[in-house]
Fold:
Amino acid sequence: PDDQIDAYKTAFADREDVLARIQPSGKNAVVIDWTAPESDFQFDAATGTITGYTGTPEVLAIPAEIEGLPVTVIDGFAFSCCDNLTSITLPDRLEAIGGSAFEYCISLTGITIPSNVTAIGPSCFSGCSSLTSIRIPASVTDIEYQAFAYCGSLTAIEVDAANPNYCSWDG
Structure:
């Protein structure tokens, strides 16, 4: 409950590897941002690629760096079937999202692609049945086949007006 927000803040205060912002919801205290510990990620330091994830939060901010190195790629299937994931924040230096990276994240409702991403892999968000909106920046030059297949709740794909390859319908 809201009267326990201070207890939540205290619990997270000792965790230097976790950024948690707590806000009252009117009914329950809610963690609204969670930067997972590096140990939750499988990471290829040679390529800056996240290859897997073992955490279970609902709201996740992927760190900009792991092991002191920039995260530039999310590999295929890295977050596939993360059923609890409702919201994700991607790092600004991210350049590519691999095939099926978020496939069947059935609770994911929205995502904003960072401005450095150039490629969205095949079936990247396929089966994200709760996904209602996505923002695609001008930098994206390649959206592979079935990137948003079986996203029955998807009602808005907003493409940056400066994108030379894609555009939003009626916008």
